[in-house]
């Protein structure tokens, strides 16, 4: 196992394949902890973790909160409405004030790409990116890798299709980088309005037909369609999007028998994914949520050393 | 991960292969003496050398009475009290203990007993996994200088050493010759 | 009092001069060019280039309205330190320079406090709103040298047409910041693989090219002089080159930063690299160099855009566009000379008589009888950029700490020495 000491987790881009493997291996121990009756270890006793979520999130915040608490860290949550940002305080000032209270790890979610990079330059404490705009969401990609590896025992050589709004998805970006680093083949699919310029330079194949993306794939990751994008002319209507790009049973006809269906949540049932597929036998959507806590425990554990 | 050994360290083999084997044999005998119902016993080795010792003891027990005692691995990293002051981030190894802990007779096994802090961490770890009926401790070498009120139930050998000396137990499992080494730290 | 610039390499692209000579200045004019000249005061220029005063035709001085970023005075000090004897300032002040009285204020303020010539650029439309024509005649009368809505490009082609026609009436060129605002949308950097990697909304090259093409067509239609500001991509260079071939009255400028950096440098999310038009690809950068070399691009202009640190020290998408450039422009451009891409004479032309021609500033050369606007350049001086010592009121440069070779060591405006580098003593008694 390899772990070069790092201060911040800003994106998958910064991690080597070995480091990703270390995180996943470490997460296995924490998954065991989460299965016990006493789901808590004293590893991060006295460590202060602040979840600064300036963009609404329930799943990721809860997951980080549980992860911190299961490691015995002191965890507090600050959301946009509870912060001084809405009173006009700058992001830098907000973050510096939080750090001045001797925070060790700042888990940070923000609607703008690069915001975590910005804070990492301003702050001495560890910054863990919990999603920055359309840039990266590294812990989501890591928990996705973990969930895939748990089922298939390997990632190298797998074919993974990522379907939906690739252009605006940090989940897609982090997963593309992570899967490529681990040696998987990646396909992206969606309407051309949602495929960003030069994405093939990231080492992925592009298709505009969901059937082509699904065929022969070992894993299909569906991305959430953000309803607020409807007015932006990326697609004419939710109804039409669902008709051409939603995953349903019929579109899985040509798929591998042991295909895994994933979704970072929250799901728009009947939009990007049909209910029977989301709840079906191939779906590992709830495993992703379970594993998210273990992976985030591993992240907090590994990055806590850097905060000394 | 084995630490790089300093070049000018003086080493003395104070316990050789035969003696070590005899000590492990003794440990197994005394465990058998004190624990009538072997079906309740689980040996839990504290990784990594405690695990080797636990497996050896289990083997001896099998030779003596034909019973297989389950052996588990315990990683105490998450329970250490010096975790955050260490320079290197310790790598986690998965803790694997066969079967439930509830009502078991857990015998913790480690190679060297020193300050007692490792054993304290190990007991915390075991207790978080369930309510064992009893926890005992078996060690190959007790080098003294305790910092916590902890005493082993089964001790291979007492080797009181000076503060500028260290003790290391070597196992064939790690590609080394069995034995206990006394080292002077310059 | 007379002044002699002694023993320098006089480079004057207008008169095709490139030789070691002395230059005597009296009463604000060059009175004598030759050898062995003497005067009351001497500037020893041995080893230096003596060139026509540099001109930066695209500068934001922020006064009136945003004096916390820059003033006419501080901006002119930065210009002098960068070797510029003249600058043209864009109209996006508060109030916008869209009436004769604002133009008058700038001219008066410059006369009082500026070290260098300041040429105001008036707005084409009232309030740069792109709805109705500004009072162009009034501004021309008070000293405006060109018209532009700059960063708020005129999206209505009919208004642009009328603006060009009306500007032509007063003999003023129209400067166009070519950007289709709908196409650029919320973009903050060049659209391409880097924006995709960084998750930042992109500005496609097409948003510039569409407008370059439109404005070329309108220039053809109206006969107005069109100047394309800060060209950033290959497609624009190609279109301008082709239009020039067709005899259309179009000129163009490029910034030192577009010639130096590409979108790859944004990987660090350094907000000082957030500029509009955005830094584009290496292929674009090469095309810009080629355009500058073959004369498709007539001038180098810095688009000096001072901003307060608080406006830059923030999330990339929330940061304002622009970087300062007056004090790094020449040194960055000299890299192309050191690399053997441009000759000294070519560079000086693109930074003095080239831009003077665009704004129809006359007598901008080193000739006996011409106004004495002269810059002395040490081509080999190696130094580290230190933004803390800039004369500009702002610090938003991505070049801080860069090691550069060559800089202006003395600037003479209308016969007066307005800047002398502390580390390079040039002056002495005659």
What report would you give on this structure?
- The complex is a heterotrimer of chains A (308), B (186) and C (430).
- Chain A has 308 residues and is of the alpha/beta class.
- Helices cover 37% and strands 15% of the residues of chain A.
- Chain A has helices at 17-35, 59-70, 91-100, 115-122, 138-152, 170-181, 210-214, 238-245, 275-278, 285-304; strands spanning 48-53, 74-79, 105-110, 126-132, 159-163, 185-189, 205-207, 219-222, 260-262.
- In chain A, helix 2 packs across helix 10, helix 5 packs across helix 6 and helix 5 crosses helix 10 (285-304).
- The model of chain A has no long low-confidence stretch (mean pLDDT 92).
- Chain B is of the alpha/beta class and 186 residues long.
- The longest helix of chain B has 18 residues, at 17-34.
- The interface between A and B is medium-sized, with 26 and 20 residues.
**How many helices of chain C in DSSP terms?**
14
Helical content band of chain C:
25-40%
The percent range for strand residues of chain B is 25-35%
DSSP strand (E) fraction of chain C? 15-25%
Question: Over all CA atoms, what is the radius of gyration of chain B?
Answer: 16 Å
The helicity of chain B comes to 25-40%
Biggest beta sheet summary of chain B: 5 strands, parallel
* Overall geometry of chain C: globular
Radius of gyration of chain C: 21 Å
Task: Label the structural class of chain C.
Answer: alpha/beta
What is the β-strand count of chain B?
A: 8
> What average pLDDT do the residues of chain C reach?
97
Assign the structural class of chain B, choosing from mainly alpha, mainly beta, alpha/beta, alpha+beta, or little secondary structure: alpha/beta
Shape of chain B: globular
Largest interface in this structure: A-C, 25 and 22 residues
Largest sheet entry of chain C: 9 strands, mixed
Order of helices and strands of chain B: EHEHEEHEEEE
User: What is the terminal separation of chain C in angstroms?
Assistant: 11 Å
